[in-house]
Structure formats: structure tokens, C-alpha cells
Amino acid sequence: MKIADRVQQVPPSGIRRFFELAEEKEEVISLGVGEPDFSAPWAARTAAIDSLERGKTSYTANKGMRNLRVSIADYVQQWGLDYDPDEEILVTAGASEAVDLAMRAFVDPGDTVAVQEPTYISYVPGIQFAGGEPIRVPTTPETEFQLTYDALRDAGAAEAEALVICYPNNPTGATIDDAHLREVAEFARDHDLTVLSDEIYAALTYDGDHTSIATLPGMRERTVVFNGFSKAYAMTGLRLGFALAPPEATQAMNRIHQYTMLSAPTTAQYAALEALRSCDDDVVEMRTQFDRRRRYVLSRFREMGMDCFEAKGAFYVFPECGGDDEQFAEDLLESQDVAVVPGSVFGDGGAGHLRVSYASGMAELKEAMNRIEAFVE
Ligand code: PMP
């Protein structure tokens, strides 16, 4: 069969390649995964089971169940986000689907889209599948991986149609402070960019509150916010996320969604509804655990003399490994049976770093850190 050029030009995921190496070995401790080690809250799981018992196995409205959209509208108020459940919220199969819809809805062939790097691995392929081209905007440890006006200008982002940002960030764990966020907003306004803001880790912010770029002056009308249930509610396998955007943009994404997905998984929508109704305490508990582990892992890296800026969100730290990160990760796996992800997988600015996920139990984390220390020594 002829494979489309658009697909052939996108290389396979570098993370996958690394996991395949890890899978060949037994007894590996993996700090490589990008998902919570917790299960979804019990109440959410029960609601999913109940819905199945009641025979709720049909499609829902294209945009998602209305009561879920109303609950999402309430939920995002905690970040000052104010969206109409009927016109401005689209429930999707994970934030992943929302990202893909946005690329296809807002990018024409030949358009350029600016992307901060290092960042989550799906955006650049999403741009390319839509026929667009990425403009990579480096962020560095000097600014704690925060985007700046100058970095955007120097990378040529002024020419782009859209800008993708992700804070709290995967893979660095970086958050963005208000001053830097204002710079990014100013740049977007000055150059009339649509901003695609992936805020899936908003609920996992450990130092201060998350601020959404959509709440800054002049930004709501040019921003699409992505969020979902995978991280905050440990529901990765249920595949449920959502997009928040002004009516016209929501309609455009729904135009694609109604043909390609019809509706997000129904069972997962029932689980999400209950998660929003009764699982706040579970989120607080998971966040507290993650924060404890975050501080532990950071202190261990510093004790072994590896530079590591203080990641304040998500569940990753991004230490410098001083040299070839792929070689470091392969040797660490080979000699100590610990899997981490080489930073260069996440774009140029990631080279010389490792993405270390602390979404593992404390006992496992301790053992892994002991082994990394032995390796470094
Ligand atoms: N965005 C980021 C930044 C992520 O890290 C992930 C999951 N690794 C996703 C989106 C995808 O989330 P979902 O499970 O909701 O599709």
C-alpha cells in the first residue's frame, strides 16, 4: 500500500523506542512513564460500572453529555476560566484528541506553528499531520524553561499562525510565572497568534496556583485550552479530555470530531461526571503524594551533584546529565535496570537532560534513586 508522505515524514516516537529497549529486560524500575501510578478514584470507577449496569452504552451528544459539560464549566472556574457549556466546551477522547482537532481545525497546509521546546512529543507530529510546519522555540534552564518574548521573536515565531504552549510542562515539570506568561500573551497579541494551551497538568501545581493564559487581557478570544481527566484524576486509560474555546473555534473542532469520533467514550463520561462531583479529596491526596516524591527526588539529585532546577508542576524532574543523554539513559538501563527518558526526545533544548517521572511509589523511587546514585558514582 502507498503510505502518505505526510505520515512517512514523521518519525516514530523516541519514547517508544526507549521503552522497547526497557521491555527486553526483566526487573526494570521505570521512571519513564507519563502517567500516574494511582488508579482512578473508586467513586469514579463505581459510576462507570453503574452506568454499564444501567445499559448506558450508546453514543452521547457529539459535544459530550450536557451535565458533564456543565460540571466541566464549574470545574475550570477554579482557574478563573469562564466557558459556556453549550457553546464553548467540547468533550474529547483524551486531551490528545483535542490537540489533534485543534491542529486540523486551525492549521492549513504550509502554515507554520510555533512550539516551545523541550515539550510533549505529540504537538510537532500533530502539526505535520495537518500539513503545517513547526517553528521550534527553545527554552533553557536559565529561565527555568519559561518562554520569553525574546525567545519567541528570535525563533521567528512572529511569522506563525499559532503557538503551542504547555505549562506545567512535560517533560521539564516547569511552570510559568505571571511575568513570563504576560510576555507570551503580549507576543501573541502583537503578532496575532492563536494560542493552543495544553493545561492538562494544571491541577498538579505544587507552588502557587496555576494561571491560564486565556485569563490574561485580550487572550480569551485567541486561545484554546486543553485539559482532561488523565493526570488530575488518574484516568489515563479511560481516554477523556476536553477543549475550551470561543464558540466559532469550538464549532470548528466539533465539525471534525462529529465525523471522526462521533462522541467521546460514554462510560468514561460517567466516570468523569462522578470524578468532578465527589473526588476533590482524591485529587488533593494524589497531589500531596506527588509533592512529597517531587521534593525527595529533587534532593537526591542535588545530593549526587546533578544540576536540577526546581520543577514545580506535573510529575517530572529534568536533571542535567552532563553529556550524551541517550548514552546515559542506555547505560543506566543496562547497568542498573532503571529506565528514564533521554531529554533529547523532547526536542533540541532537551539534550543533556533526563526526564525522570516520580509517578511511582516511594519505595520504588528510593531504590531507583539509590541505583542512579551508584551509577553516577
Ligand atoms: N498533554 C500532555 C502534556 C501530556 O503529558 C499528555 C499525556 N502524556 C497528554 C496531553 C495526553 O493526555 P490524554 O491522556 O488526555 O490524551
UniProtKB/TrEMBL annotation:
Keyword terms, alphabetized: Aminotransferase, Pyridoxal phosphate, Transferase
Residue span(s) of domain Aminotransferase class I/classII large: 27-372
Cofactor(s) demanded: pyridoxal 5'-phosphate
EC nos: 2.6.1.-
Broad enzyme group: transferase
GO molecular function terms noted in the UniProt entry: transaminase activity
Family assignment from sequence similarity: Belongs to the class-I pyridoxal-phosphate-dependent aminotransferase family.
Protein name, as recorded: Aminotransferase
Organism: Salinirubrum litoreum
